[in-house]
Write the structure tokens for this entry.
Amino acid sequence: MPVIEELIRTEEDGTISFGNYKLGTKSKLQDFEHKGDLYKVKTFYEITKLERNGMFVYESVPGTSVENFAVSNDGVDFKVESDKDAQLTIQLAEDTLYEVYVDESAVGSMRTNMSGKLSVSVELNEGMPVAVKIRKR
């Protein structure tokens, strides 16, 4: 999976891809319109962060590249890549139980906090994207 050179883009399937963990300096792009919403991405080797309409959506430490990011009423799906293991924080429904899958393997149930954030650690290797699926239980 290549890094996202344009920082954020819309894919043919209607999902979005964003992030570039290979950047040495912080880069950002704001006011990216997708399905009536405005997105802002900040990314480089230390962190990748996505906001929709000024609200938190996704953050990774260190930085990552994310492809085919899709949010539904049941959860979220995406592929993530980096050259280091990453801590991902994703905005979902508040105080809700979710099942987390990494490359189709269930890694456990997790409950979002009162602000709706869920954090998960993912083992990553450069050039080997990992599929993450989070579903409401």
Summary: The CA atoms of residues 26 and 44 lie 5 Å apart.
